[in-house]
Every structure is written in structure tokens, then in C-alpha cells.
Amino acid sequence: MLNRRSVLAAGGLAAGVFGVPQLLAPAQGHEDSAHGEHTFQESKTFTGTKPEIVPWTRPMPVPPVLRPLVSTAKQEIYQLSIERTTAEILPGLQSPVMGFGGQFVGPTIRAKTGRKTLIMVHNKMDEAANIHLHGGHVAPEHDGHPKDVIEPGRTRLYLYPNTQQGTTLWYHDHSHGTEAAHVYLGLHGAYVIEDESERALNLPSGAYDIPILLRDIQFDDSGNIVVFDDPSKRTVVLANGVPQPYFEVAARKYRFRLVNSANQRVFKLRLTGDKITRIGSDGGLLANAVETEELVLSSAERSDVVIDFSKYPIGSKVVLTDAVAGEILRFDVVRRATDQSRVPAVLRPLPAMPLSTVDREVDLSFVFKPNDRPDGVINGKVFDMDRVDFTIKRGTTETWLIKSSDPTGVKHNFHLHLVQFRVLERNGGPPLPSDAGLKDTIPITAGETVKVQATFTGYTGRYVYHCHFLEHSWIGMMAQLEIVP
Questions:
Q1: Is the pLDDT of residue 331 over 90?
Q2: pLDDT the model gives residue 425
Q3: How many domains does the chain have?
Q4: In which band, very low, low, confident or very high, does the pLDDT at 388 lie, cut at 50, 70 and 90?
Q5: Where is the composition biased (Basic and acidic residues) (predicted)?
Q6: Measured at the alpha carbon of residue 436, what is the angle toward residues 430 and 441, in degrees to the nearest 5?
Q7: Residue 184 maps to a domain
Q8: Strand ranges inside 338-477, DSSP E
């Protein structure tokens, strides 16, 4: 069980994550105002010896694109289920999981700027769930607020206006008290918005534009999925739901939309013998293409990258590695192909920042109860859906100072719903390369400070902001803002 001692030791975890070990033991539940009123069990799948994962024996699947039921002049209408299903994560074995559309890694939804997306979501499970479009500019009733759940057997409509520029988003469960388990068990998928100005840049597209959702997972010695334990034990890394897969590529440029869909891992990615060209962040294209030797992605962050395989001979093997997990994905160059795509040095200038008129502070931390069990808190308060923590006037530009009063080195992660922000400073100096562009999610380590600026245009209503290490938000590290006219 997590206690004060484990918090003090957490800063030294090599995996760059802060563990919440054994928050729920098998077949036990937890109930209070911060944590919800739901019971989880570890998935009991099969018995026997856990099979060995042999690298590069299975291909990386590309999640299918969800097809609309109806396409009109102004919108696409989709149907999507939430259901319990099984997936072959370990070779030859079927594990119980949850999936949008019955898939472990849900289908990719591709939208266009200026065309609405209407999704009819039917919950086939025996417990409540919902959908949050992470990074989406949507009305509060369609944001997947923790209280706005879809009860078992019911259907809910989500309307996404897609007024923002082209970007890589993702969708996942955000139900109160159950989000950590549901996302871990598979309720997540990619959501891509495309716009004409981006298309004019002639970046790799079509079959050469691939979403890759990266995450980690833990199995016990019998091969059962372990839902809640120390996250440093989640040593199996999945690319689109498969451990250490290969992906066959042509000798040309590819655009990969990388999504960190892990509950609480920071990936530090490198490409063997080459640099990665980064072109996009959470909120869309960067101002300029940037070559980097290491790409850092905290939980829920996205990064669009281009890899040019034309420099490699046919038969080459190019491996994507992580600083902790090691080799996680291999690209096999198997054929030649014509390529008229390009990566312009100048991509899309970032918008000018309006004058900020309000300053706020957000402190992510843990507090301990008499039983030595922690609550996650923001500014000293555990999440309460009936409490508004910040009231914001619509159209206002604000500067938020994000910090943590936890012991130095403890990891957190900050996500703001509804709007993207710009990182102004980190520790009083310039932002990190990973902070560039329009952001909605950033890592924050205790002992650091990060200053961000956001403009709250669009809708009025209630939205949440929280640590996106989902076991942290699950135990209360979430707060609520209300935008007023």
C-alpha cells in the first residue's frame, strides 16, 4: 500500500514515474468522495506459465479508421461501442480488456477542421464509462466531465465541432473514480484533425501517416494483467497494443503520430543511428521542424514526427528505443517507393500571445491521512465535483504557475481541459524543447516550476484540470474551473 515512506522514495524511480502500488488488491473495492464508488478486479485470464515475448515476431497493427454511418455537408455521424472484450497482447493468449469498438486500442477517428463529428456511444459494459476528447475544444456537456457518464446499456451523443487547427488528439475514458483502470485496460484511441493549410505543406499523408499509441503494462507470473500495482513493474511496452513488434516500411518519408497513452510513464525515445524530425506537439504543428536525438513524451503528450527511411538500404532494421524499456519497436525497410512529400523548415507560425491579465498558481501534491494513505490534492484540496476552484471570465488570458510541494524529484503531470496553452518558462528559464508549440499536457517534477499562458475563449461552463498520471487524479489530484460570461 502506498505510504509516506514510498512517497519519499519515489523521486529515485529510474522509470521516471511515481508509483501508487497496490491501491486496489484483487477483488477489493474502494469508496469515498475522492475515489469514486466503483469496484475493480484484476483480470483473471489464464493459468500456467507466462509466455516469453520474442522480439520482432509480430507486426505492429495500424488501428482501423472508424467509418461514418452518415456523411453530410457539415458533419460525419459515427457509432461507437464501449465493451469488454479480449485481446492477444501476449502471444497466443487472450486477455480480458476493455475497448472502444470492441478493440484494444480503439479505432482512429479522422476529422477535418470546420466539419463536425457526432458520435453515438453505446455502453455495453456492466459499469459506467464515458469519453473525453483529450485536447479537444468542445462544449462542457461533450467534454467527458467525470460526472457525465454513460450508464450500462445507455447511449450518449458527443458533438465535436473541430474548430481547431489540424492536430493529433486522443480519446479516452474519464469516468469518476474509474478512469485509471479503464484507460489502463484499453479505453483509448487516436483522434486526428486535418486541415487544408496543413495539407498544402505536402507532409507525408495517407498510408504514410500512422498513429502509434505507446504504453506500458504489467502481467503476473501466470500471465494475468495486473491492474493496480507499482507502475515501475509495468515493464512490457506496447506499440498499438503489441509488445516489441516490427513495422514494414518503404524507403521514403513517414509521418508518425506518437501518443503516450500510458497511465504514468515518461518515454525518452531515440532512433538507432539517426535523429528524429519533430513537426508537431499536442496542439498541432510546430513553427519549425526540429531534429532531435531524444524525444521526451510524458503521459498523454503527443508528438508528430517524420522519419525518412530513404537513406537506408532495403533490408535495414531501424529500432525505436526507450531509455528505460530498451527496444520497443523495429522498422523494417522492405521496399522502394516514390515520394513527393517534404518537410518544410517553416511549418506554421504560432499565434501571437494576448496580454495576460490574471495570475494563478497550481500546486500538485499528496497529503496523508491518519492511516498514512495519501490523497492527491491540488492547492491542498482533494477533488470535489460540487466545488469550483477557479472562476474564469470568458475571453480572459491567464498565466498559471504550475509546481509541486512534494519531496524533490516526485513526478507529476499537468493537463488542462478545453484550451491549449504556451509554456513561457521552466524553472525561471526557457522552456525545454519538449515544451515547444501549443500544449495541453506537460510533465512537472517536484522542485520545478513551469509557467504557462492560456486564453479561455469559446464556451462557458465547468471543466477540470488535473494530474494526468491517472492513478494520481483517481485519488483526487483534480480540480474544477468554471468559465463565466
A1: yes
A2: 98
A3: 1
A4: very high
A5: 29-41
A6: 105
A7: no
A8: 358-368, 374-378, 390-393, 397-403, 411-416, 421-426, 441-445, 449-455, 461-467
Q: Which three cell numbers stand for residue 83?
A: 465493451
Least confident piece of the model among 41-55, 373-387, 434-448: 41-55
Query: Residues for the chain: how many in total?
Result: 485
CATH number at residue 390: 2.60.40.420
Do residues 441 and 402 lie in contact, with contact meaning Cβ atoms separated by under 8 Å? Answer: no
Task: Check: CB of residue 333 under 8 Å from CB of residue 313.
Answer: yes
Would residue 292 count as lying in a domain?
A: no
Q: Is residue 317 part of a domain?
A: no
CA 277 to chain centre: 21
Q: Where are the alpha helices (DSSP H) in 192-343?
A: 196-199
- Mean pLDDT for all residues in the chain: 90
397 three-state secondary structure: strand
Alpha-carbon distance 408 to 138, whole Å? 36
Q: Which helix (H) or strand (E) covers residue 243, if one does?
A: strand 242-243
Residue-range definition of the domain harbouring residue 477: 358-484
Report the alpha-carbon distance of residue 357 to residue 366 in Å, rounded: 30
The answer as to whether 416 is a domain residue is yes
pLDDT classification of 272: cutoffs 50, 70, 90: very high
